[in-house]
Amino acid sequence: MTSDSPTGVAESPFQRYVPLAAWLIVVIALLMIPMRIISYGYLPGGDLRRHVAKAFTDKPYTQIMVVRSEYSMDHSPGWEWLLRLLHKKADWNADALVSFSIGALMLCVFYAPLPWLRRPEAWLAALLAMMLAIPEVMIRLSQARPLLITEGVFIAILFAWARPDAKNPSWLKLALTCLGIALAVWMHGAWYLWVLPLVAFFLARAWRSALWLTACFTVGIFSGALFTGKPFEFPRQAIYIIMLISREHLPQSLLVGELRPSYGEFDSLVLLALVILWRWFQTKRPPAFLGEPLFWMILICWVLGFKADRFWADWGVPAVLVWLALQFEEILPALWDEFSPKRLVACCVLAVPLVLHTTNDLDRRYTFNLNEAFLDGSDPSLQGWLPEKNGIFYSAQMEFFYNAFYKNPTADWRYILGMEPALMPPDDLKIFRTIQRNNYAFQAYEPWIDKMLPADRLVIYSSGQPTLPRLEWHNAIGNVWLGRLKK
Fold first, then answer.
1. Diameter of the chain by CA atoms?
2. Is the dihedral of CA 145, 151, 156, 157 positive or negative?
3. Are 336 and 3 in contact (CB under 8 A)?
């Protein structure tokens, strides 16, 4: 074992164990964060609910939603396969799958950089600094989406490749990179976004690393597609969905949150500037940014964020975290020795506020779901008000799909609106956009009523009974009203 001190030797038996204690503090602190969040009974909204529900049914999404004929498969087959396996083989119920999703996916990000760090407290410092600059980061990390697998792999690759190799990378490094990309593509999809780090490495003129990464990404993406069992259809579907979304030319107010533009992330830029000035003062020389792939990655994602925030939130923020951790790892040896008790004090000073900041229930971010009411198909009071066999739920709220499918994964009905509006049949998508543009006015639902069959139901969120006289209405739960054709 080496030390950052001049002698490189621990001065006492206690100091010998300081590095091990520091590692334990970091690992335990990061583990405590998802465990504490899970203890609230937290149930994230959105995609987690459909992924968990999908574990309880063998039906493809084409039999769960009403979709375009061109749509054939989901973009996260690996993650749903894993949840389905845990349900069938380990007999895990929905609560267990939710807890596993929250914990495992969050730790994919939290633990990803640890194998490459000499000072793991640098990662705590990076996380704490980023959480203070952008509190919304925890919202993304706690949504339990398979996107976090991609982020974890991306963080690991940046650490492994950020420092240029003096010679060709080892075969182990190449194999692990290919495997990581394949896992991310199979579990989450969005394979086309891996071009972003490649562009960053080429712009930094890290030619050797860029060429090797191009080969790794090619092998990894093809392998991930191969895992799905449809190696050509899977990547084609991803491009098809992107084309559907992009050709709508919608007002930004109608887009989902991650596709809306960023505000420019001023707080993040201030944080980066402060660390740059600190390093400049410490090293007495200006940083050489243009040769750093991380700099180009951060810049690319910041610029693209003005088009869609997902570029910054999903790719820019992880790149900033890696850059901060690397900077802090260079700063820390000048502040305290590797075997110094001060190091343990510093770990605690970083770990305690990080855990408290990320796990407090500010604005009920982890308990909002405790007051939610779900549409339960087994409720006797709803008999006759739910769609009949092969009927359709017409709804203009994605929230309804996530909640109803989560509670009724084996139901015989389908949903006109699922996890992505662009997948709807063209005429239904046109009706849905008209409803949105008219601020969900009752009259905007009339075209769907024209299409309804006796087996179908219309869902409207309203504080009072909808004024649509062609239907009879029932207040199912909360502000959810179910309408059916009059007999």
1. 89
2. positive
3. no
- Residues 186, 171, 107: CA angle, nearest 5 degrees: 45
Taking the chain (487 residues) in runs of 10, the rounded mean pLDDT of each run is 48 79 95 96 93 94 91 87 96 96 97 94 95 90 94 95 78 94 93 93 92 94 91 87 78 70 85 86 75 91 90 93 93 83 91 96 91 90 92 94 95 93 92 93 95 95 92 93 91
Sign, Cα dihedral of 368, 369, 375, 381: negative
CB-facing half-sphere around the CA of 250: CA atoms within 13 A: 22
**pTM of the shown model:** 0.91
* C-beta of residue 95 within 8 angstroms of C-beta of residue 448: no
Q: Which two tokens stand for residue 478?
A: 């909360």
- Beta sheet of 471-477, edge-to-edge order: 414-415, 392-395, 457-461, 480-485, 471-477
Number of DSSP helices (H) and strands (E) in the chain, helices first: 20, 5
Question: Which helix H or strand E contains 480, and what residues bound it?
Answer: strand 480-485
